[in-house]
Amino acid sequence: QSPQRDLLIISGKPILVQKIDAYTVVFTLARPYAAAERLFDGIAMLPRHLLEARLTQGTLQNAWTTGTPPAEIAGLGPFRLKEYVPGQHLVLERNPYYWKRDQGGQQLPYLDRIASIFTANADAEVMRFKQGETDIVSNLGAANFALLARQEQQSRFQLKDLGPGLEYDFLFFNQNALPSEPEPGFFKKQSWFKDTRFRQAVSSAIDRQAIVQVAYFGRADALATQVTPGNKLWVNSAITPPVRSLERARALLRSGGFSWTDNKLLIDRSGLPVRFSITVNAAKPQQVKMATLIQQDLSDLGITADVNVVEIHTLLDRIFKSYKYEAAIIGLADGDTDPNSEMNVLTSTGTAHLWKLQAGASPPPPWQREIDELMERQLITPTYSQRKQIYDRVQQLIWENMPVICLVSPHILVAAKSRVGNFHPAILGNYTLWNADWIFLRP
Which residues sit opposite 19 in a β-bridge? Predict the structure, then answer.
């Protein structure tokens, strides 16, 4: 049931594993696989003596829960679990068996412990940081970053804007092939959603620069496709972020058979007013603001967009299970820069192919079939330059056919007290603690 499973099945076959000796393991893949070694970056080695029985019983996914005593959890990292108190904190202590040493031969990590403090919200997290109760904030919101920036000099802390990371926020419509309507009148609206011209028109009406400035205080980059400017190796630089054009949007709608009433409301061929809801996560204030801005933008086209704010579990249930939504805004963050990390999103059979999880009996459209073929081809292409050409074409197809309307990529914003040494945040997670074994505190 892991989202990583799609990457570990090659030509429909699992990777074969053979132990050669105490220090050698051979992995056999069904065919050549580009960047195969990167598959294992995010897969943990698990302790056989603690978990083999669970694996045999088929209960591995429930083996370690929030109630498992720390002594029953083992790992290979620089720290190990010491204490977890729900709603309060999680404490990691130095792993005395950690294998790595620094250049002088001193065993790492330098720190004796790391405590993660749980707060009610981002504002409370920043307040604790300002009051000296914490040393690092790993993911600041743009508003709080601006607040801290005004106090950076006198408060003895360091702020870093790393620019766009690998996260992208996007709007998408429900195009699932469903046996019955999740809501009355949904199928009529879905005929709009499935029209590429309609999606392109909505995209053209959206002012992405306004989203950058209003929702993110300038700490985001406008997007055309799912590959962000932070992914310098793979972004197709020939595709520039779109500029708002109501004129183009109206032309696209006219070509799709839409028209306007005397009071400037958009209607479809049958005279039905164009109205749909945008469902968004209440815990993401930037995305709520984004939805409100899009609502205003679309009103200039005569489209009524209702903003439906729900908690995250409700949102995910509607997207993945009940399909009771019309449009939604969500953010995805790649765990790697490599195109393979997008396989389960871009391919028609992927588990995160959000806009059309229910493929139904009808074959995918030609452009989607081409994306499927290209993503499979890049998977077995050995050189970066060849893979880059293939993935550039994938991005071009996404831009032209707009199955998702990419909006912005938020900047990675972090903060640390001046006494934190070896603080070198990066755009890959964990942004601030990826080098936790090297971090130290000055007196």
Answer: 25
